[in-house]
């Protein structure tokens, strides 16, 4: 199963050794899931860590081997994602998840993705980390 991680999930996984965002990386270490993101999302996560918790940047570096970087989406796909509607900063996230054919887009951004949580867009289910873990538990049981 392929999980596309939004920037806030990457940030949280680096920031906190506990919690569902970091646990996704533990599951990936077993080979049960593939974690991916875009350069756009990774750069956002790095920028936010540098501003808010610079001491956590080495932790992020340790997580990177478990995270595949997918190609940036075509501008047409970004424009389509903006119609969902998504703000200009989040449309590239959804577009990248769609373009790489992720099974789940994992996000903690309720403000901008809240209306899409629990729905499927072009085959990509949008879920928060806790809901993602619940689904994985059922699939891997």
Tally of DSSP β-strands = 6
Low-confidence stretches are none
- Quickly name the level 1 CATH class: Alpha Beta
Anisotropy-based shape: globular
What's this entry about, in short?
With 141 residues, the chain is α/β, with parallel strands linked by helices.
Write the SSE topology.
Blueprint: E1 2-5, H1 7-15, H2 20-29, E2 34-38, H3 39-52, H4 57-63, E3 67-70, H5 75-82, H6 91-99, E4 104-106, H7 110-113, E5 120-121, E6 124-127, H8 129-140
Parallel strand pairs: 1-2, 1-4, 2-3, 4-6
Antiparallel strand pairs: 5-6
Helix pairs in contact: 1-2, 1-3, 1-4, 5-6
Question: What tags apply to this protein structure?
Answer:
8 helices; 6 strands; single chain; 16% strand; Rossmann fold; globular; 52% helix; 6-stranded mixed β-sheet; 141 residues; alpha/beta
């Amino acid at each position: 199963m392929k999980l596309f991680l939004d920037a806030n999930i990457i940030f949280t996984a680096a920031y906190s050794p506990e919690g569902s965002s970091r646990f996704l990386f533990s599951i990936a270490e077993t080979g049960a899931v593939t974690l991916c993101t875009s350069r756009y999302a990774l750069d956002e996560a790095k920028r936010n860590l540098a501003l808010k918790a610079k001491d956590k940047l080495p932790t992020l570096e340790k997580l990177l081997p478990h995270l595949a970087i997918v190609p940036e989406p075509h501008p047409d796909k970004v424009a389509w994602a903006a119609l969902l509607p998504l703000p200009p900063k989040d449309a590239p996230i959804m577009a990248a998840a769609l373009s790489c054919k992720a099974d789940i887009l994992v996000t903690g951004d309720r403000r901008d993705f809240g209306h899409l949580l629990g729905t499927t867009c072009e085959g990509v289910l949008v879920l928060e980390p806790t809901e993602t873990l619940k689904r994985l538990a059922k699939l891997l049981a």
